[in-house]
Amino acid sequence: MRVLGVNPGLARCGLGVVDSAPGRPLTVTAAGVFRTPADADIGHRLLLIERGIERWLDEYQPGAVVVKWVFSRYGVRTGMGTAQASAVAILCAARRGLPVTWHTPGEVKATVTGSGGAGKAQVGAMVTRLLRIDAPPKPADDALALALCHIWRAPALNRLQQAHAAARPAPALARRQKDTIR
């Protein structure tokens, strides 16, 4: 499984690609950050983000995309830019029919370090260790941690979705149940 992790941001958008195969160590295929000029029009900035993500999708051809769940404790303006960049990533994946998953920062930290309250340095240290790289990617970024989180959580999430789908009554049965309840 090849996963593209996207740490969305209007000023800075982090991307990381991690490969996973049963019985083999996880490997980093690519990690990077691209920036948009702060003085540029919002539409132009979003277009730059879209072009960058499309290039990564073309080059690395992931089987899944994972995006950091948007929230902002710093204010509406920061949250809006992050949400807009997140929407661009989702749109790029949707164009290609790629599944998109979202993880909160706490889920990522808990999955990678064992603690949802871990700091950036601890996450970076664990990403470095788990991916067997010499140093945390600079600038510090959560895109690789997002990809790792998805690789480890996806099998369990898939089983839960399958169980939930199996537990739903068939459409014809559901209609009959509604008719008898009236």
UniProtKB/TrEMBL annotation:
The keyword Aminoacyl-tRNA synthetase does not apply. Its cofactor is Mg(2+). InterPro entries: RNaseH-like_sf (IPR012337), RNaseH_sf (IPR036397), X-over_junc_endoDNase_RuvC (IPR002176). The active site is at D141. It comes from the Bacteria. Keywords: Cytoplasm, DNA damage, DNA recombination, DNA repair, DNA-binding, Endonuclease, Hydrolase, Magnesium, Metal-binding, Nuclease. It catalyses: Endonucleolytic cleavage at a junction such as a reciprocal single-stranded crossover between two homologous DNA duplexes (Holliday junction). Mg(2+) binds at D141. Gene3D superfamilies: Ribonuclease H-like superfamily/Ribonuclease H. Binds 2 Mg(2+) ion per subunit. The RuvA-RuvB-RuvC complex processes Holliday junction (HJ) DNA during genetic recombination and DNA repair. Endonuclease that resolves HJ intermediates. Cleaves cruciform DNA by making single-stranded nicks across the HJ at symmetrical positions within the homologous arms, yielding a 5'-phosphate and a 3'-hydroxyl group; requires a central core of homology in the junction. The consensus cleavage sequence is 5'-(A/T)TT(C/G)-3'. Cleavage occurs on the 3'-side of the TT dinucleotide at the point of strand exchange. HAMAP family: RuvC (MF_00034). Homodimer which binds Holliday junction (HJ) DNA. The HJ becomes 2-fold symmetrical on binding to RuvC with unstacked arms; it has a different conformation from HJ DNA in complex with RuvA. In the full resolvosome a probable DNA-RuvA(4)-RuvB(12)-RuvC(2) complex forms which resolves the HJ. Belongs to the RuvC family. This is Crossover junction endodeoxyribonuclease RuvC. It comes from Streptomyces incanus.
